[in-house]
Batch of 2 targets.
Target 1
Amino acid sequence: MTRILSFLSLGALFGFLLTRAEATEYNRIAGMFLFKDMHLAGVMGVAIAVAAIGLRLLKSGTVKPLGNKKLDVQKKPYHKYQFVAGITFGVGWALTGACPGTALAQVGQLKVQGIVVTLGILTGVFAYLKQQKPPQTAEGAAQLGDHSPVAEAPAL
Amino acid sequence: MEQIFETPWPFWLSGAGIGLFVILLAWLSGKPLGVSGGFAQACDAKQRGKDPWKLIFAFGIPLGAFLGALAAGGPNWTYELGFFESEISQSLAVKTGMLFIGGLCIGYGARWAGGCTSGHAIVGVAQGAKSSLIVTAGFMAGGVLVTQALYWLGA
């Protein structure tokens, strides 16, 4: 319960920060990509610089996470389609003026666009997982001798 | 209070806030900031596993945005899309279709890339990860090309 409340509160703080940064304003994102308004580029630049210092202290062990928790912050793996994957995301970012975090924050601001984009993201994530899954699942199921349809039932 | 809840924060304060948040989250829980993983956990029981913290975190985001807006005297329902409406189209169908298809690209692209603006562009780039630098270049390239094309064709 404490864990649920902690992550819920941390999520809430992040959502609040996104709205204060005006990352949930369509014009700020469109303005950045049109090179007319560099506010958000500045926000991201400062955020990266500040995070870089803190993460370095944590990763080097100079500062230990609270209660000696295991630090689970690593570089994400590289794959050769990553640039194309990034462009796919960027196309969506341009069309919506939102990303996963800001779309959720927009829902809280009662912006209808946030709801539409959130539904789109869920569908896109679901499509990706569905397309990734069948070979793995079929194989896994065959190995386990499990032929029940439950293994492939959508979780939503 | 007005300064906190009503007036938007300048870029340096917003950026410092988000950067410090990344550090706070990692220090308190050991976890890296990320949002698209929460969407994956919403769609897939296997990814939720025994610790659905990403999903819980994702549920907190609209909550905080709502409470912040409440403190500022809002929020009010709106479906307004700024420049897009003044320069391209005011059609409800066009807007809704574009937002949904854009959402699809975001969801599919984020999982394919292994993260989104928070996990890759902020936390990944802050660690100097090659994967994140490449993905973020892709985010920006896609964003700039499509927005420029949209407004060039639409205007």
Note: Residues 2-135 of chain A form one domain.
Target 2
Amino acid sequence: MLHGHETDWEVGERKIADLAAPGEGTDWLEEPHFSPDGMSVAAVAKLSDDTCTVRVNGEDWPTAFEKVWHVRFSPDGRLTALVQQDGEWTLAVDGEPWENTFEFVWNPLFSADGAHIALCVQSGARYGLAVDDTPWETLFANANNATLSPDGRRTAAAVQTEPLGQAEIEKFEAGVFSAAVDAEPWSRNFVNVWSLAFSPDSARLAAEVRTAPRECTIAVDGAPWARTYASVWEPRFSPDGKSVVAPVRQGGGWILARDGQKFWDASYVQLWHQMFSPDGKRIAAIVCPRFGRWTMAVDDRPWKETFDVVTDAAFSPDGARLAAAAARDGRWTVLVDGHAWGRSFERVWPPVFSPDGRHVAALVEEDGRRRLALDGNVLSQARGDVLGFAFSPDGAKILSTCLDGGACIRRVERLGNGRG
Amino acid sequence: MHDVYQFVSGPLAWAAFGLFVGGSLYRIAAMILLARRKDVQVFEYMSLRYALRSILHWSVPFMSVNMRQRPVMTVVTFLFHLCLILSPLFVLGHVVMFDTSFGFSWPALPDQLADAMTLVVVAACLFFLGRRLSLAEAQYVTSFSDYAILALVAAPFITGFLAYHQFLDYQLMLVLHIVSGEAMLVAIPFTRLSHMLFAPFTRAYIGSEFGAVRHARDW
Amino acid sequence: MYSNGSTMTREPVQDDGLALGLARLTPERIAATTQAFLKEETGARLQVYLDTCVHCGLCSEACHYYLSHDKDPSYSPVGKVNQTILQLVKKNGRVSPEFIGQAARVAYTECNLCRRCSMYCPFGIDIAYMVGLVRRLCFKLGVTPKYLQDTVNSHSATLNQMWVREDEWIDSLQWQEGEARDEVPGLRIPLEKEGAEIMYSVIGPEPKFRTQLIYQAAVIMHAAGADWTMPATPGWDNSDMAMYSGDYELMGRLKRAHFETAMRLKVKRIVMGECGHAFRSIHDVGNRWLGWRDRPIPVIHAVQYYHELLTSGKIRIAKKYDEAVTFHDPCNIVRGMGLGDMGREVAKALTPELVEMHPNREHNYCCCAGGGVINCGPPFRNTRVSGNKIKAEQLAATGVKTVIAPCHNCHGGLEDIIHHYKLDMKIKFLGDLIYECMEKPWE
């Protein structure tokens, strides 16, 4: 994902790297990943001596590894990859592996500012997380649903706190899972724990829990809501951290509940991905008001226009506007404030608002090529496939990264007045 | 006996037709409303093309595999339903009765043919009875109501046949014929005979699911 | 004379899951749960089906259990309805725990939900739907077979069927990639490749027991030059035993994870391995539970994908398999998607001769493993094997030594049947034969 801040916004285009020819001693280069400012591009390089490394802007990391996968830039621009050395796995940051190694590592998680990195780890068939090269003190028989707090200082996962033998259904029903924050499990177990979410101040943790085989609810810091439901979906804290909202299923339909109480009145065929506007004043969710008809609802009021699928919803930074990707009859479009763009595409990536909220842009696929579309118009200058984009902080320019053949191109362009 | 005849062919007949028509409309409407509320998929996936495709394949003798596997049952079933519906509609006595009462008529079947069709219905009922008694897979799921319904269906045809040929007491047979006919009509919406009302819907739905969703045949 | 709703003789079976659930039941709880269930979760369909069924027994010949048990009517589809849902409705749930135990046994282990009987009922009554209702009620009563429930527990805890932990999944893929790379230089199993055309999804047993299938799929994808990926997160498993245990809430969770993983990776379509029930879950069951009329991302079964690769020339066949084969039609992709002819075209391209079983295509007999029955485990193995003598006869009559079955459950079921009835036959996936017979430009 590209970021708008601390970036060179001079209009123009430059070739960052060329991946077309791997070069002598390299068997192949894998898919490229751009840094948030678009100034670097990295890919796994498979070397002819049966080792792997990461190639950044044409330069290999000094160390080669047995295996490398999952190359990703942290939001602060550091380059990470999962690497194996001497049969042990760890995370390498800018070519430098962590000191701690594990039997397996996966799913690196980055704090919003990129300053902290967490990693799912397994050693000796015990599971947990490691943050900034420090593994949890206790590992568990299983850990999943890993999450990193917004400030990047705390980690949590659903953990199996007790051994479970083969087909021990009675024990499973009694509950062998809990949520652990920084390796410290909640005081009680549940049948299942899913969808962990930290509060914005990183102090509290909410999760979906199954308290009994047919009863689900939301637990906050281990304390379940007073009533249970047939099913629940992911909890979300309000921006002020004071309340938790979650979709709950009752009476054959889904409603939005807050802190264990009915919050929205309407019952939907489906309701999920609820999100607060940044100012916390509004809540939007992807909803299915009638079987097969999907749209967004804002504060329990669904938009009129419905689609076969709605996904990737996002508020504008000021919370005034809302956009999502939507499809009908296999063609995708962008839905903004209840109205679809006039054009449809083979695919649409998550729409993004400009900082001032006036523009919406999204990557779209047309005739097999990935392009950048702004407010319903495809920006036609682009060659090759656009891989990512970001608005400048003043909303006047747009940065995009493209792959044209093997050429990795960074482009900054001014948004036309006509579209302003 | 005349008063009884007047009653069963007058007010009772009106009541029976009323219950049949009203009951049928009510059941279909109630079912549609219930389905709209509880079984939205039925309407969502209904496809006219595949509904008709399925209905066609099951309305023509021997167009389905199961019909071909059981030729006797297939012949009997089709003849039974054909005669069951056509003979009461086109038997001369019924046509004349309508003409006398309401002043309109339609072509009638020759008496001998109608007679034969009546016997086909009765014979088919006997066949179904024999089947229920002798075939394990039918007997296993047969309850008293299944026999009662069979008797209910056979009764108007047996009594009609007896009345037409003036066997036994004509007046009594006539009254019994009318009463049993009315009983059968009333039973259609409220018993398992309601398959007459619902079969097109069940076929249309499964035909739509098989055809439009699962791209497969259902016959 | 058979008394209504009674059951014919069955050998007693000890299943700890059923026993555990039954021990907690009281007639009051059964009645209350059943009444609430009938009110909340059934409607016009059930009522019309029960009213419309004239108890003619014409569905009987459709059922392989019935045919395999010398036409014992308690195994007929309508007989199973009579022993279960009909009585529950008639008595408004006032039944004994013993009745529920028996109903659970009928619904979970004596019906594969193969839907063949719908093709034999003159009214097109969806009997599998009604048996599914019985399972749903049994789930609500907590009466589920032990091994099926354990599989469902795995689904709930890991979002896959086989208790595969997150790292084990990735490790299995990387292991198979490494193995395959020894044979095919440059081969990759691209993980988490956002924007790829295809997400390839499999069922839990593939990374656990049948890793060669992942190997083969990778070789086929490589040879076809496919732009594909596999997720390194939960959501990779397309299977769904919750659909069969009656835990529809969990089914929804599994399908949501699967589809949202594909949407996160922004693929154009999901290609799934040779599994039948997963296709059913994705194509017209789980998606509907979530409110999607169709699929939010198009999904095709391996049979369709192989057909596409062969007809487009992306994969070329270098040699034929060395003997004649027969083709088993899995219910969930043949009655469930009409892929019988497509499967045959692929099979014929790979083999010298295809000897048909009779009946075939939509009318083929079930493997007797599907519908979650094989997942009910050892206690009911004999139920499955003795319940499908007819399939053994059908297989034997072909006289060939290889049966192709493009479905995992069918493999498990046919394997047991072939073993039990001492048929000298091998079972193959289409992928096995493609891998064996295709042109390998790197060789």
Note: Residues 166-183 of chain C form the longest helix (18 residues).
